Amino acid sequence: MSTIQLIDRYSRQVAVIGKEGQEKLSRAHVAVIGLGGLGTLVSMYLVGAGIGELTIVDYDTVSLTDLHRQLLYREEDVGKPKVEVAVRRLRDLNSTVKIKPINEALTDENSELIVKNVDVVVDALDNWIGRQVLNEAIVKLRKPLVHGAVNGWYGQVSTIIPGKTPCLYELVQVRSLPQCVGYCPVVGPVVGVVASIEATEVVKLITGIGELLTSKLLIIDGKNWVIDEIKLSRVENCPVCSRYLKEK
After folding, report:
1. Measured between alpha carbons, how far is 124 from 113 in angstroms, rounded to an integer?
2. How do residues 92-138 score in pLDDT, each as one tens digit?
3. Which of 145, 148, 166, 191 is placed for a possible disulfide with 160 were both Cys, Cβ 3.0 to 4.6 Å?
4. Total tally of structural domains belonging to the chain
């Protein structure tokens, strides 16, 4: 990355994370799984921040009901594949970022291949079945995961480091938002709050700056503006962690 790029494009950010932090971002590869409300906004923030490479994964098309919270899309995009629209808009935002679109659903067959070569994974899914598929892959491959979820006025965020923190399976056993099946009511700006926190966690993970939401679940109540933090503990004999992680 040239000095001109640092000064002209990222000067406000470099003033906070330093040149070394910006260089770390420029070398990092992040995968965002899901291009709905959370995924579109997280992707925009990461591309704006100067992530080196971004893999975006979604199989869906844009619908009219998406537009109140998925701000990457426009009315003219309704019916188009999300990854096709997203990659074009994200490249318009920052042409220096390498973007890899994957127009597929996350499955047991492709999950490991998708996250194998990335540094950080972002959970921007809208269902817990998909999250458990993702959880198996990140635990097996020991990939850091930033988890986010939204339901109504409420949201939650946690950062998972396999082998050191509870995984998503363990998180669900302790506390989680209600599971959405086919339809999930959400308030647009609350999605924005959660996505911003997720993107911030990714930046902190990559740069090594600041305290992470590891072994913690941040709960956001956007209706009453109550923000709480729940401490998480490992679940004994977690079926996912016990299968893939061995104590050194």
Report:
1. 18
2. 999 999 999 999 999 999 999 999 999 999 999 988 889 999 999 99
3. 145
4. 1
- Low-confidence stretches of the chain (pLDDT beneath 50): 248
Calpha distance 40→219 (Å, rounded): 21
Beta pairing partners, 135: none
Domain of residue 126, residue span: 3-244
What's the pLDDT score for residue 190?
A: 96
Strands 216-221 and 29-33 come out as unpaired
Specify whether the CB–CB gap between 90 and 99 falls below 8 A.
yes
Distance CA(31)–CA(57), nearest Å, equals: 8
pLDDT computed for residue 170 by the predictor: 87
Residues 6+ apart with CB under 8 A from 182: none
Helix, strand or coil, per DSSP, at residue 66: helix
- Please tell me the distance from the alpha carbon of residue 74 to that of residue 228, in angstroms, as a whole number: 34
* Alpha-carbon span 103 to 141, nearest angstrom: 22
Q: List the CATH number of the domain containing 65.
A: 3.40.50.720
Q: What is the pLDDT of residue 12?
A: 94
Q: How far apart (Å, rounded) are the C-alpha atoms in residues 236 and 15? A: 43
